Amino acid sequence: MVAIALIIVNFLVSIVGFQRTDIFEKYKFDLQKIQESKEYYRLATAGFLHVNWMHLIFNMISLWYFTGAILSIGKFGEWLFIIVYVFSLFSGSLLSLFIHRNKSQYTAVGASGAVAGVVFASTIIDPLQKIYMIPAGFAAIAYIIYTIYGIRKQADNIGHEAHLGGALGGFLITCLIIPSQTVVQHPIVSVLIVVPAAAFLGLLIMKPHVLLTREIWQRRSAGLQTMDDLYNERKIKEQKNIDAILDKISERGMKSLSKSEKEALEEYSKKQNR
After folding, report:
1. Per-residue pLDDT at 66 exceeds 70
2. Separation of alpha carbons 86 and 69, rounded Å
3. Which of 64, 83, 91, 268 is deepest in the core (most CB within 10 A)?
C-alpha cells in the first residue's frame, strides 16, 4: 500500500504538471531559484514532477518492481521503504545541486533519484535477484560506472547526478539501518559498489576539473553564467537604472518619473536602509 500510495501521488502531481505550466515551473528543480531565492522546497517537489508520460511510467514501473525485496523484511519493510525513498530523493537532489552549483541554468524533474535509491536498497538486500536475467548486484556495479561516465561526459539530457546520489543514498541508508541483512551478508557486492563511487566523489571534491566538463566546474565558460555572475550582472543593471532615474530627477524633477520608476527608486531606497 505504501508503494501504491507513492505511485498515485507521483501520477497526480505529474498530471497537474503536464497541464499547468505555472505549477511545473514553480516546483521543478531550478538551481538559480534554489540558490538565489532559497526555494529549497524544490529539492523535494521536483521529485514528483515528470517531463512526459514515458518518463513517469518508466519510473513508476521501476519503483513497483523493486519494492519486493524491501517489503519482504516484514512490517519494518514499509518504514524502511519510506525512509529509503525520502532519503534517496534528497541525496539525489543534493548531489545535483553540488555538481551543477556553477551552472545557473540547470533545471531537472523526476523521481529517478528516489527510484534509484529503492533499486539499490533492494539490490543490497538481495543481490542475486534478476534484472533482465542479470544478477542485480552485477547490474548495480555496472550502473554506478555508467552514471559516473554519464556525469563526466554530459552528452545527454539525463540527470545522472540525481541517479548516482539517489542510488548511493538508498544503498547507504539501508546498510546503516539493517547491516546484518545487507553489508554483512554481501560484503563483496558492497565493496564493489562503494569503491568506485567513493573514488569518484573524492575526486569530485578535490579535483573536479579531472572529472567534469568545463561548463560545469569552471566559474566561466561559453554561454554560461555562475550565480555570482548573475548577481553581479543584476546589481550593475540595477545601479545603471537608478543612476538614470536620478539623472532624470536632477534634470526634470520628481514629477517627471513614471510609476515604475518611482517604484524602482522606492525599492532601491528600502534596500539601502536595510
Report:
1. yes
2. 17
3. 91
Domain that holds residue 244: 227-273
- At how many degrees (to 10) do helices 160-177 and 187-206 cross? 130
The arithmetic mean of pLDDT across residues 19-44, rounded, is: 89
Place of cell 548511493: 168
Domain with residue 145: its CATH number is: 1.20.1540.10
The contacts of residue 131 (CB under 8 Å, 6+ apart) are 139
62 lies in some domain = yes
Q: Using one digit for the tens of pLDDT, what is the confidence trace for 236-261? A: 677 778 888 888 888 888 878 888 88
Which sign, positive or negative, has the C-alpha torsion 189, 191, 192, 194? positive
**Counted domains in the chain:** 2
Residues 6 or more apart whose Cβ sits within 8 Å of residue 32: 104, 105, 227, 230
160, containing H or E segment: helix 160-177
Q: 8 and 85: one domain?
A: yes
Q: Does residue 150 share a domain with residue 122?
A: yes
Same domain flag for 205 and 233: no
